[in-house]
């Protein structure tokens, strides 16, 4: 059997194995502005320190450019110690190119996904990275990663997933289409992008 010659029945079986239970129905709290949060409970020292950790103690006007979105997703990287070259997608340019140019990953290697992003204006709660994996048009996996809540600052934030292992074996090799989304509790679509992952027997196979 050649690479990528996996049957629809086999893909359906893989999808069933990877199926996750429906998430618990959760209603996020009402959004508050930076100013409102900074004014809350000013006399509570422990709460003040917690808010400084989340919001930062400095002046947030430096990142309040009205032309910028509140959340900017800048890069996605696959971190793998054995990769011969950086595995990175620049998400600030033309996202269409990633539908054609795939990232090559050697079968069986361990890797982490890193999402780099900025928060420019207001606190954003419940950030989440959602990834759906397709093969030959059939969805075989969906992963939801809770990123957390972040306040505005000049520097980027980095989110790392837990260590994952690339699939291995003759049936696992081939092309995968992946749909990624960076969203939050309020279901804002901060960025959606599609990219290809090519699982090979070796890095330069």
Describe it.
The protein has 205 residues and is mainly β. Helix content is 14%, strand content 38%. It contains three helices and ten strands. It has helices at 8-18, 34-39, 45-55; strands spanning 71-79, 87-90, 103-106, 110-119, 124-135, 138-150, 157-160, 164-165, 174-183, 191-200. Strands 1, 2, 4, 7 and 8 form a five-stranded antiparallel sheet that branches. A five-stranded mixed sheet has the order 3-10-9-5-6. The longest helix has 11 residues, at 8-18. It starts with 7 loop residues before the first helix and ends in a 5-residue tail after the last strand. 14% of the residues are buried.
- Helix fraction? 10-25%
CA distance, first residue to last residue: 17 Å
Average pLDDT for all residues = 83
Rg (C-alpha, Å): 20 Å
Total number of helices: 3
Major sheet characteristics: 5 strands, antiparallel
The secondary-structure class comes to mainly beta
How do the SSEs run, as a string of H and E? HHHEEEEEEEEEE
Secondary structure: number of strands: 10
Unreliable segments (pLDDT under 50, ≥5 consecutive)? none
Shape: elongated
Proportion of residues in extended strands:
35-45%
